[in-house]
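Troubleshooting log. The previous structure file for this entry was overwritten by mistake, so regenerating from the original sequence record. Sequence copied from the archived sheet and checked twice against the printout by T.R.
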Amino acid sequence: MNPLYEQMKTSVFERMSLLAAKHGAVNLGQGFPDFGWPDEVLEAATRALIEASNQYPPSRGLPALREAIAGHYERQQGLDLKPDHVCVTSGATEALGAAILATVEPGDEVVIFTPAYDSYAPMIRRGGAVPREVALQPPGWRIERDALKAAITPRTRAIMVNNPHNPTGRLFDLQELQTIADVAREHDLIVISDEVWEHVLLGGAQFTPLFAFPGMAERTIKIGSAGKIFSLTGWKVGWTISAPALAGVLARAHQFLTFATAPNLQTAVAFGLSEGDDWLSPMRDRFTRARNRMAGALSDAGYVVLPSAATYFLCVDLKASGIDLDDEAFATAAVERAGVAVVPLSAFAEQESSRHLVRLCFGKRDETIDAGVAAMARAKEMLA
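Regenerated output below.
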């Protein structure tokens, strides 16, 4: 068996979700919402399933969806795109895999910022390359120029960045993004920019894509996700945006991963992206209210909550909250004894990592948030 997978541990998300089910706990660990999807998009998927083709669509995506994606980013982010820039994938994780396989060769290195989404390092290794971690430091989680430059070697082929950032909820500022762009141009690197949370912005936050920076359209692979935009994470419709020359190589990597994505879901996403953007502001308002509800209640319970400007997630500082346990020990005790599942942040890094932080998902209905915070209050009483 391939030792990469034979020796791989069960993901922390699956592990905590299984424990939540076993103990009847509130699951604030796994990152999926239980509200927020537009019914019109579901209805479009239903119509397409019954009335349209259910055979293989074009591997790079239905023309209507590729056109809709290009038009959406022109309206929302001012990007000058054509369908040739777009390759539709079976979710953003597949898009990340295709981007890595299309970019690296054995022996290359890819810089990642940790804590990082847990598919990055294994997929880089599957492509024969080596992940090089740049550890971001709490509570600010800033990308520092010196730390990034120190990670660059003659073998570096790409930089992978997630903005907005899971698991911290950080939205990197223009100076930090400019640092990535400068280093990429200086060393002739590809940037794989995982921007799946680009629309889940909280409290009026503003997002700028790396693709828009001078000199970056030719070297950036932008990753997007309909699952995040429409709060339909199980649909697994994602895409890459890149210069046409890069897009052709990405499409060849994609065709031997999943080849194509369910056509009725593609049709529904095309409908959702093309029927105007009025749903974006209400979606952001709902998630902002959910963040504020959870953050305020956790603070009232005596927890120190780190800022979150985007995503479904916020982090709690256990040490600052008076809890003398590391994140793994707290997460295990919380689900088994207090009835709430959270995710230890150390699971998002392989090397240097803070071990006093846990991540909670606030993309939940009010009653779920309230039950989860009540369980967190019990955990603090038991463990502080």
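The longest strand covers residues 156-162. Archived copy saved in two places this time.
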